[in-house]
């Protein structure tokens, strides 16, 4: 008798494929049942079919943005569904009564679910709605975006916010930028409100409550953005080599997207500059502790600069990377970005020819107090309604749903 042998690797692959087919089949069956029920009810999604409120996050790293909002919904006894594409999102372990935290699946599976979602108001910090895999569901009535950094709102990749219905912002300059984009692209006007920054609010509360740091060696944090205009995109490993020559403790924390979009670059850098007593690579989901224990930050145009400078009030160095606006919404605007007009006021620029003298630059910035006077002005420009973001965002979502339901009632009266 001849037996068919399947090696363990192939067997594992086939099992994974089978599970994927069964999972997709189950989802399609549920969706078909839902559509049948809707047709039997007259072909319309009824109000009871929709979630009143939903939040979507494509990564667990944004829990520090959404936690205070979920807490506010819980405090008010308002039901909301939190959908995450991370199976280990901290939200999934938090005990709520009114907040339903669900794992939506990873990658395209999460977007597939969202494309058929039924909800009145959905909040997200993920750009690219109706541009990439994530399409607008015909059964979601109102899409709301909230940024996850204090920075120019036009630093998203092209068309990042075009298909949202509303954007909740933290600085008037962001509203001005989006209005100009709408005019140039002849887009319908979105609803925009200044609500503040939930990430900043939460980080400041944690800092005020934190224990004093123990003595530690001088620590420099290298935390670039990603893409061709980032520090690694322009300088590669030379910047790490230069920082190691200072003798200071060096933490390298790349943007999480680098490990997806620049995988080969990251693998090469981590191979050439491995963890050691002097150097550590940091990929913590929450950046609070690594920011708190660093004495100086080196970055480029990343929003982490403003976290470090405006919350922790520590010195920064920003690299001259000859920023290319072409991939971003910013390329539609002629004026200089708020980020690049603000950086010279609150930090020191690092040019490529200064890499050989980087210790002198670091030492000078560590002792220079002249930048501090500009921090208060920058905070006012980019952080409206300090400490109030979660309340204001929740108010907006609840009021918007009430307005949608009121419009429904008025339409039914006229019918």
Please give a structural write-up:
There is one protein chain. By secondary structure, this protein is of the alpha/beta class. It has two domains: 46-197 and 387-414, 3-Layer(aba) Sandwich (Rossmann fold), CATH 3.40.50; 214-382, 3-Layer(aba) Sandwich (Rossmann fold), CATH 3.40.50. The chain is built from 15 helices and 13 strands. The strands form two sheets. The protein has a seven-stranded parallel β-sheet. A six-stranded parallel β-sheet has the order 10-9-8-11-12-13, with helices on both faces. Strand 11, helix 11 and strand 12 (316-319) form a beta-alpha-beta unit. Helix 2 crosses helix 5 and helix 2 crosses helix 15 (389-414). It is globular, with a radius of gyration of 24 Å.
Features:
single chain; alpha/beta; Rossmann fold; 2 domains; 7-stranded parallel β-sheet; 14% strand
Any chance you could write out the topology, listing elements then pairs?
Layout: H1 8-40, E1 51-57, H2 63-76, E2 80-84, E3 99-103, H3 108-114, E4 119-124, E5 140-145, E6 166-169, H4 172-185, E7 191-194, H5 198-209, E8 219-222, H6 231-235, H7 238-244, E9 249-252, H8 258-261, H9 263-272, E10 279-281, H10 288-292, E11 296-299, H11 304-311, E12 316-319, H12 338-346, E13 348-350, H13 358-367, H14 372-382, H15 389-414
Parallel strand pairs: 1-2, 1-4, 2-3, 4-5, 5-6, 6-7, 8-9, 8-11, 9-10, 11-12, 12-13
